Amino acid sequence: MISAYTVDQLRSAERAALVDDRDDAVMRRAAYAVAAVALRMLPRPVPGRRVVLLVGPGNNGGDALYAGAVLRRRGADVLAVLADPERAHAGGLAAFQRRGGKLIDATDAMTAAVSALTRADLIIDGLLGLGARPPLRPTMARLVLAANAAPAPVLAIDLPSGIDPDGHRAAEPASEGNGATPGAEPQSGPESEPVAVDAASTITFGAPSTGLLLAPQTGRLEIADLGLAPDQRVLPDAIALDDIDVAFHRPRLGRDSDKYSSGVVGIVAGSAKYPGAALLCVGAAVSLRPGLVRYAGPQAAAVVQRWPEVVASDDPVDAGRVQAWVAGPGMGTDGPALRRLNVVLGADVPVLIDADGLTMLAHNPALLVRRERRSHAPVVLTPHAGEFARLWPELDLGDRLTACRAAARQSDAVVLLKGDRTVIAAPDGRAAVNLTGTPWLASAGTGDVLAGVIGSLLAAGNTPGGTLDAFTAAVVGAHIHGRAGQRAAAAGKVGAPALWEYLSAAG
Ligand SMILES: NC(=O)C1=CN([C@@H]2O[C@H](COP(=O)(O)OP(=O)(O)OC[C@H]3O[C@@H](n4cnc5c(N)ncnc54)[C@H](O)[C@@H]3O)[C@@H](O)[C@H]2O)[C@@H](O)CC1
Ligand SMILES: [K+]
């Protein structure tokens, strides 16, 4: 599990480590870690390879300069581009120059800097770290545009310059694709997006800041443990799971398993207009291998034809016992749909509401309030941005994690906000960022699959031996779904049903 912290939390942990940091000892250790990753990224042989350092005014630039000195010792041809020469880190600069590193002042030699970036084998981004206050000022923004347009991969130190370390504001990756010319004055004005380094890898120290998890610009995340992480009494701002955590959380069959010990999930999905949603959601639930899937809705015949093992009825009232409900995908919003939703919300088991179910909740906020009076079992809401805005119009989606947290608190539900980086928040303040996924998943029906996956996990968590709470079920489900999407995309598959076969193995 990766624990991410706010800048304030990281700064206070670092303060303790830096009290007695004579001779930049901590910074030198950080620089060695940077150089080790850089050496892995450079083509062989290393001597003569061109490395360009982008050096900002703070300690992040210091890290880059010390790392540059190490790379010089390995024979690389290293050039430091200083974005703010008067404020470049003195100790780092001296060490770098002692090793024969070359310097360019970007404030008066931008053309030379851009041309060096274009010819580089590796670019190291030491413009800004934890002290970043985006958006970037013009000199840095120009360098970032040029670095992103260059063929070389970028290794970002601590974070990709241009992102908000706390993740409160999003930055678009800057590239030629957004109409900007490398080296030219970045456009300003309301339409221009804040620019940020688009890193192939980011190496951070101790623990990442939350913004690093949220930003797609981070690329591959490396964490060097320099003894700088906050201690275990400090609650992380957000977490992210990896494949090993998720494998650990996956429900397992025991020798004495029966259907109720493996989880029985009920699904209300699909309608005459959207029959496919029923199949997609049920198929996903079945793929997670719960004890039993019950279907309750107008597509009962089609569902049983495809999965004879599913027990189907027309209405949740007649469905029999379940340990969690999913309601919403393609179920419609008419009178019968509203009645089915009401039945599900009245059940004293965990309930996941998605899609049309969320639309009905937005129109009838009293439904959730009534649910609170009828059951203490958790509710999971899985909106995309449009549904989120209809449910909580007052919350600012420019700051997705904060908005998601506020929504979870207000509605006393686990809220999973879908997106390029899906975020999940619990009413008690826990939050997670999902790091799996692919643009392949931005297609019709994949949300129905996600609902079925999380529904199965909720049911497993509600068994006598179940250990998955609703928040963890949502985080694990998002991870499995994203990983399945990556595998389906890599296999060249098309369409949401392709996810089924990858769900049982994913993550
Ligand atoms: N504190 C520690 O324990 C360690 C810190 N290290 C490095 O030190 C970094 C933090 O150093 P600093 O506190 O000096 O912070 P930065 O290196 O992020 O520099 C902050 C300075 O950049 C300027 N700046 C901020 N936003 C800007 C913008 N949008 N455009 C242009 N200029 C801007 C401001 O003048 C600010 O003072 C970490 O990210 C990490 O890379 C490492 O050396 C490891 C040890
Ligand atoms: K950086």
UniProtKB/TrEMBL annotation:
One of its GO terms (molecular function) is ATP binding. (6S)-NADPHX binds at residues 59-63, 129-135, 158, 277, 330, 384, 448. Residues 10-234 form the YjeF N-terminal domain. Its cofactor is K(+); Mg(2+). The keyword ATP-binding applies. AMP binds at residues 418-422, 447. One of its GO terms (biological process) is nicotinamide nucleotide metabolic process. Pfam families: Carb_kinase, YjeF_N. It catalyses: (6R)-NADHX = (6S)-NADHX; (6R)-NADPHX = (6S)-NADPHX; (6S)-NADHX + ADP = AMP + phosphate + NADH + H(+); (6S)-NADPHX + ADP = AMP + phosphate + NADPH + H(+). K(+) binds at residues 60, 125, 161. Residues 242-507 form the YjeF C-terminal domain. Keywords: ATP-binding, Isomerase, Lyase, Metal-binding, Multifunctional enzyme, NAD, NADP, Nucleotide-binding, Potassium. Binds 1 potassium ion per subunit. Residues 161-196 are annotated as: Disordered. Its EC number is 4.2.1.136, 5.1.99.6. CDD domains: YXKO-related. Bifunctional enzyme that catalyzes the epimerization of the S- and R-forms of NAD(P)HX and the dehydration of the S-form of NAD(P)HX at the expense of ADP, which is converted to AMP. This allows the repair of both epimers of NAD(P)HX, a damaged form of NAD(P)H that is a result of enzymatic or heat-dependent hydration. Homotetramer. Belongs to the NnrD/CARKD family. NCBIfam families: yjeF_cterm. This is Bifunctional NAD(P)H-hydrate repair enzyme. It comes from Nakamurella aerolata. The gene is nnrD.
